[in-house]
Specification:
Blueprint (H helix, E strand, L loop, with lengths): L1 H15 L16 H15 L3 E4 L5 E5 L8 E7 L12 H16 L5 E7 L12 H6 L18 H7 L16 E9 L4 H5 L3 E7 L2 E9 L3 E2 L11 H20 L7 E3 L3 E4 L5 E2 L2 E9 L3 H22 L2 E10 L2 E2 L2 H13 L6 E4 L4 H5 L5 E6 L15 H22 L1
Parallel strand pairs: 3-4, 3-5, 5-16, 6-15
Antiparallel strand pairs: 1-2, 2-4, 6-14, 6-16, 7-12, 7-13, 8-11, 9-12, 10-12
Bound molecules: (2S)-amino(hydroxy)ethanoic acid and manganese (II) ion (2 copies).
Length: about 400
């Protein structure tokens, strides 16, 4: 398994160099570097005798159907798009690991059909809406999204066609009822496993999240000649609101709503010049918390705060919801099988929630779904220093062997 683990890590590092931005890893939905990733995945899959196809939203899908396999198939996989200046393992590790799981199933002659999916888009960076690949696979892709434009004015429809895809075929990406379940392997992206000195964990559920876009509209003007009391400064309004968000949610996280998190990660100011009062400020917002009621209550409260700040400053304000995903529990049966495989390999059996979103939360709406986390050294992710330990990769391959044997015996 050591050799397999080394290959997985080497491939992840190689794929990290397939980027839109030389010197750092950025690979948004269907951008050019995706073609190179597809070529490498196709090479790895076809070497195992898998049949490879790319569906209408750019998911690359490899099917391994050995002689003697029944009609049911197990889905495995994760995403290959990234955030800007990403690490090498978020998403891609899950794809490379599960291709190795196919190699293991093949070596042990397991009569189990397996489809590995490299989802084309999970982060939502290019069109502001996440999980495009898994939405199509689960039949939940809203074709109205095809009209969305990216920062360069390229619509999703045009991006698909430029990649050689046919948006009219999106429905064909949907899975049938021959799927026994979906399993995603992913780095934890947090500090828990490292703090407890544990290599892997079975995920019990994925925390719900709500994402908004907000826009404050003031009046651009000269920074030197406009008196302070005559300004309608969009950036100052946005900054006042961001500080209010952080203050209130930081307090709630240790009192009324333990563990709640809210983030403003992006602000786009126009005209974005040091000597011009900001005319507009577009702000991202996301809030994550297990209770949808509490999450929605906070969202309403923080929108009201923004409206009050805008009114007091004579600023325009509007907002749109980009995502409202409720908390999703993982499948008990598959998770029990994963725990049994972890135990059989002699690793501590840990179960934990996921604060990060994953394609698994979309897949769980359609098929029994489970997740296995690998430790994140330093607890860091969405950052170029994101990493994984070779021993933990090897552990997840050993666990894969035990898990696949268990599920193959169940499928029969
Ligand atoms: O944002 C997330 O939770 C995930 O990394 N897409
Ligand atoms: Mn991510
Ligand atoms: Mn991810």
């Amino acid at each position: 398994m050591k050799e397999r683990a080394e290959r997985v890590i080497a491939d992840c590092r190689r794929i990290a160099l397939m980027t839109e931005e030389p010197g750092r890893t950025t690979r948004r939905f269907l951008t050019e570097p995706t073609r190179a990733v597809h070529a490498l995945l196709r090479e790895r899959m076809e070497a195992l005798g898998m049949r490879v196809a790319v569906d209408a939203v750019g998911n690359l899908r490899g099917l391994w159907k050995p002689r003697g396999a029944g009609v049911k198939r197990l889905l495995l996989g994760s995403h290959i798009d990234t955030v800007p200046d990403a690490g090498a393992f978020d998403g891609v590790l899950g794809v490379m690991l599960t291709i190795e799981w196919v190699g293991i199933a093949r070596e042990f002659g397991l009569p189990l059909a397996i489809e590995v999916i490299a989802f084309s888009e999970e982060e939502g960076m290019r069109y502001g809406v996440p999980f495009l690949g898994s939405r199509a696979v689960t039949g939940a892709f809203d074709t109205a999204m095809l009209k969305l434009s990216d920062a360069d004015g390229v619509t999703m429809d045009a991006a698909m066609r430029a990649f050689g895809l046919n948006p009219a075929k999106i429905e064909d990406a949907e899975i049938g009822d021959d799927v026994i379940g979906f399993v995603e392997l992913h780095i934890e992206q947090g500090p828990v496993l490292e703090a407890e000195g544990i290599p892997v964990a079975v995920v019990e559920g994925i925390t719900g999240q709500t994402r908004l876009n907000l826009r404050f509209t003031g009046q651009a003007n000269h920074a030197g000649t406009t008196p302070m009391h005559l300004r309608r400064d969009a950036l100052a309004a946005a900054a006042e609101w961001v500080a209010k968000v952080e203050k209130q949610i930081r307090a709630a996280a240790t009192t009324t709503d333990p563990g709640i998190v809210a983030t403003v990660g992006r602000i786009v100011v126009e005209p974005n010049a040091g000597n011009v009062i900001a005319g507009s400020a577009e702000v991202s917002f996301e809030i994550r918390y297990g209770s949808s009621a509490a999450r929605h209550r906070w969202t309403r409260k923080l929108i009201a705060d923004a409206e009050a700040i805008a009114k007091m400053r004579g600023i325009g304000f509007e907002w749109t919801e980009k995502l409202d995903q409720q908390t999703v529990r993982m499948d008990r049966g598959l998770s029990t099988m994963l725990r049994s495989a972890v135990k059989a390999c002699g690793y501590p059996v840990k179960t934990m929630p996921s604060g990060a979103g994953h394609d698994a939360m979309v897949m769980a709406g359609r098929v029994p779904t489970a997740m296995l986390f690998l430790r994140s050294p330093g607890g860091i992710s969405h950052h170029p220093t994101e990493s994984v330990l070779e021993a933990d990769v090897e552990a997840s391959l050993n666990i894969g062997r035990e898990f696949l044997m268990r599920i193959a015996s169940r499928v029969g």
